[in-house]
Amino acid sequence: MQSGKNTMSFRSIFDAGELKSELEKSGVKPSFIPYIWKQVIQNPDAQLDQIPSLPSAAYPLLTSKFKTLTSCVHSAMDSSDQLTTKLLIKLQNGALVEAVIMRYDTRLGKYNGKPRPGGMRSTLCVSSQVGCKMGCTFCATGSMGFKSNLTSGEIVEQLVHASRISPIRNVVFMGMGEPLNNYGALVEAIHVMTGPPFHLSPKKITVSTVGIIHAIKKLHIDLPGLNLAVSLHAPVQEIRCQIMPAARAFPLVKLMDTLQEYQKNTQQKIFIEYIMLDGVNDEEQNAHQLGKLLETFQVVVNLIPFNPIGDLSKFSTSNEEKVSSFQKILRGTYGIRTTVRKEMGQDISGACGQLVVNKRSIENTVLLTDIEDLQAR
Questions:
Q1: Which residue of the set 98, 178, 273, 372 is catalytic?
Q2: Model's pTM, two decimal places?
Q3: Is 98 among the catalytic positions?
Q4: N or C: more exposed end of the chain, with fewer CB within 10 A?
């Protein structure tokens, strides 16, 4: 029997690499893994020693080293329109991260001038780290500093928790953390999500990055077919460094060269995230700079209304007129597909750029959330 102090030695059953390795050591075929996961997903109260039809050698291994879920839903909050649900998830080490479910009616969008087919779908925004070391000045997560990386199992468990609330069709890695700074766990988690029993399409998964050049260079090999979103937020290196300290390590010229190579290898659109900061990066001159920077790429630019982050904020939101003018320049002069993000869950602090978990926010259950939804319409 495991004592309480050894609880931390348990791994998530969804830590694929660890599970495969341990099963092989015990002479159990890894082909049982999708079956084990399916049993756990279908039976929320499943005990590993009660999963039927496994080889006898699997049971002592599973019960001594793994847990069905190493995390739990600490709280869940719904927005007033019921379209957004924010999950505060407690990891087994006591740390807290957020995952947010965003629901959409696809029929409200248009495709080739006609209403889109289908109905309601859900996108899940997941965290990849506790805190973040990128320090973007417009994002509250950066104020936490970096605490730890999530394991691949802890990332996948966010999908498991969310799937019990709403069927998830899309996953965006845009919660807490810089996904490409936790590269190994990210790759393993996405392989799990796209395999049985989850079966998510790589086309329905988006990874957002501030531009970790060395990781982008290998992304198309390790994760072919997924969507890449780049948090650009400024069209010139000087402004980028002012609002994103990490940009000093990843110069804009080198980043754009890397993205050019990535697009050549993948033949896929790249999503460009651009947060609109009043008087900082939202002038007409900035729109022309951005247009010239991107005119040789196949991109969708997503203009993101800035969400103030209380005392932490030194920025203001661009007014609608400026945002509209910015969009018209990118579309009209440079022919770049440009959307303005529809913010969701603002009444539960569930909008882009606000995620921060601290003692005060937990006590009040009013948690700020970093949400990036790239379903461009």
A1: 98
A2: 0.88
A3: yes
A4: N
